[in-house]
């Protein structure tokens, strides 16, 4: 278990250290932490998360799409090869995706492919609280969305993932 860092410590850190500690909150996108650092001090995890979300929402579309594309597929090739970030590995395992039955894995593979063909980026879901059947149901529902709707849904899921990760990393004052 990683030791949590206090909000007071985060607020006092040099920018480089702040980014080192929080750079993984949003998958392979340390720019979010770097931009948020300029708005310290933060009084709570909620305030920090709100600022990080504001930085993403205010970013240019191409940068938002890079953030979306930085996420791994659920139960995808990167998971099989052991190439996920520690955060993604833990989140996917917590939803039981590392224990898929062959038919579940086949269905997830099919859904990942259909989703990527339709939208051009990986399916993103804050899996905390979902089981494999719930994840499959979300995949199926979201395949019915338009590309513009799905970009917004993906960003909302990324914001949830970021919140969970911040809560695991940062201790309130």
From TrEMBL:
Gene3D superfamilies: Oxo-4-hydroxy-4-carboxy-5-ureidoimidazoline decarboxylase (1.10.3330.10). Pathway: Purine metabolism; urate degradation; (S)-allantoin from urate: step 3/3. One of its GO terms (molecular function) is 2-oxo-4-hydroxy-4-carboxy-5-ureidoimidazoline decarboxylase activity. InterPro entries: OHCU_decarboxylase, OHCU_decarboxylase-1, OHCU_decarboxylase_sf. Transmembrane segments: none annotated. SUPFAM superfamilies: UraD-Like. The keyword Lyase applies. The keyword Lyase applies. This is 2-oxo-4-hydroxy-4-carboxy-5-ureidoimidazoline decarboxylase.
